[in-house]
Model the fold of this input.
Amino acid sequence: MAKPIALTSGEPAGIGPDITLKAWLLRRELNVPSFYLIGDRYLLERRAKVLGIDIEIVDASPEKSDRIFPEALPVVGCGVAATAEPGFPDASSAPLATSSIRQAVNDVAAGKASAVVTNPIAKSVLYRAGFKHPGHTEYLAELAAGGGPIPHPVMMLWSPELAVVPATIHLSLRAAIETLSSDLIVQTGRIVAAELASRFGIVRPRIAISGLNPHAGEDGALGTEDQTIIAPAVATLRSEQIDVRGPLPADTMFHAAARQNYDCAICMYHDQALIPIKTLAFDSAVNVTLGLPFIRTSPDHGTAFDIAGSGKANPSSLIAALKLAARMAGTSGP
Done:
């Protein structure tokens, strides 16, 4: 029997509680896989009252959550009480967010959960509390290391219409260009190819690699990075029998006909990857972390403080993240 998914609380003042409640309410209608929330039951009860949702929420253990899930929303405590109100993070926000992430990773490592799905966090709130990582991805990589070598995490944004990977992630455009290297592209390409095969069941993944400059540099007329950094990386990946092509002009990679020619696009910087997928699948795209020893997905949106507690939050991306996590867990086996 499949193990449940460990869902983190995310930022308690954001829409994480709203979409968690809505996802559970839609469990039968949309065939949402079994999950338990790691967090504070009283926070969820308060939010349900604000939203006018009549729902049973019960304390549980990971082992018992599957039996509880059909009739009630199971919550596994993490020792932190949340006092934040919708839209207003407070001193409880960061401790709850980080504690729930840490416990979710521990639960998967202990075989209590099949995957980690993370609700949105507010990085600015975490930074003010002394959080030292750029975001979820880097924190998860450190937790996965357990004191050993830290794995190289790769951020994939996935939807039925398009899957993209930014080779450089949360960096300024100037810093992204300075950081970009052939070795980084090769390492990213290897991880993407391996996990599309092992986690997504694609026997021979097809990978498209974008150029950095307009028209992929126009043979050096518009910049040399495509020739000196990206093309050598493509050649190395091809020599390893990975089905990859590029560098391709980014402005012609994402129309419908072009997307039929690859399973994932590796782009050179954050917005080059995220603009097309958020245009095509804003409410349904899922953030997937590749390169970790466990499965992790997340909704592809933020905390939306402005609509927290209003009833307007859309649970579609969270439900997609839960479904993809379950699919990946099934594909990769026990």
Remarks:
- The two ends are 10 Å apart (CA to CA).
- The chain has two domains: 1-153+290-334, 161-280.
